[in-house]
């Protein structure tokens, strides 16, 4: 990225467009509405509660990130989105059963006013869902134009001068990039011919980039990680980020695995299984959709532990991931992990992790941070893949020929150093005399 000469100031209202107005999206929206009314705290949000050290430790300069960089305040956010079901945000939040009525009722009227636009949907990509609120068009190119018109209408009706988009929809079936994804021309031809390898999430992403809207992919779908859209984003000056929100079990892996590697503790095996009962769990109960998630989850350990570099410690690592649909749990996901580790002289040990988490509660602050940081990136003149936002993703996107960085602590350092660099502050390297670094 080229260092910005200046960053355009935030002015006016910022639209937050969410493809998939389900549990994650409504939890995010409700939280923002509650926080700006002073009824809750934005726990988990780096943009709202995080600090950043500037200069030497002896300088005692540790501002809040939102006071250091010019982020859009919560009061200037306007929320909208698409869904394949017609219920408004209040009705959807009630059905999701993530938030209690004591949190939903004070903002019920505002949530009721958020009604989803009709979604672009092909049932072959998410076979467990049967959408009733879907667009009809002659081909996929026409669907893109409808989505573009939705964006323009939303911005005009809500008096927004710009917007960002964050995918909060379901996991699509596994798909690898093909010839239709190689160039802008090939993709445009594929849209006109309704090519079967162009998924719904790709339509949203393509429409947003054409409209100059920064886009983050919160699912493991093939959405913005193919050459055609990255070329288009560069040409249009649009930032992209993805993919797959790092929330529960994978978050734990990116915390624990760097610790094992730092202490040079060996790892024979890591078995992970989840139970969850929300719409995401239902979708992932289909093997084709689970494969998309599995690929996203499995790449984490190999990149962090680097078995080729550390063959004695991680050369025979066995890593397995399972997700089980269990309706009684709803959004309250439980992740079990068993780690077979070994230490001095090869003596075996074990670590057991039982993480009773809440999927949408962990995802909501990620949506907020990505929206605000992507808006900042656009105003700074950044475009294409925003690797500095890897902190938020299971499968971080990188420039071609680079491997992704999965270590949460390195990701955090990269994010904060990028903010320092954007603002002309010295980077923190932890080199030098202990009193002055």
Task: Describe the protein's architecture and organization.
This protein is of the alpha/beta class and about 425 residues long. It folds into two domains: about 300 residues, Rossmann fold, CATH 3.40.50; about 110 residues, Dihydrodipicolinate Reductase, domain 2 (2-Layer Sandwich), CATH 3.30.360. About 40% of the residues lie in helices and about 15% in strands. It has 16 helices and eleven strands. A seven-stranded parallel β-sheet has the order 3-2-1-4-5-6-11, with helices on both faces. β9 and β10 form a beta hairpin. The longest helix is centred in the last third of the chain and has 21 residues.
Strand order of the largest sheet: 3-2-1-4-5-6-11
Uncertain residue segments = none
CATH first level of the largest domain: Alpha Beta
Structure summary, number of beta strands: 11
CATH names the topology of the largest domain as: Rossmann fold
**CATH architecture annotation of the largest domain:** 3-Layer(aba) Sandwich
Q: CATH homologous superfamily of the largest domain, by name?
A: NAD(P)-binding Rossmann-like Domain
Mean pLDDT across all amino acids: 93
Characterize the main sheet.
7 strands, parallel
Number of helices: 16
| Rg over alpha carbons | 22 Å
Summing up helix and strand content along with how strands pair, one would put the structural category as alpha/beta
Report the order of strands and helices. Answer: EHHHEHHHEHEHHEHEHEHHHEEEHEH
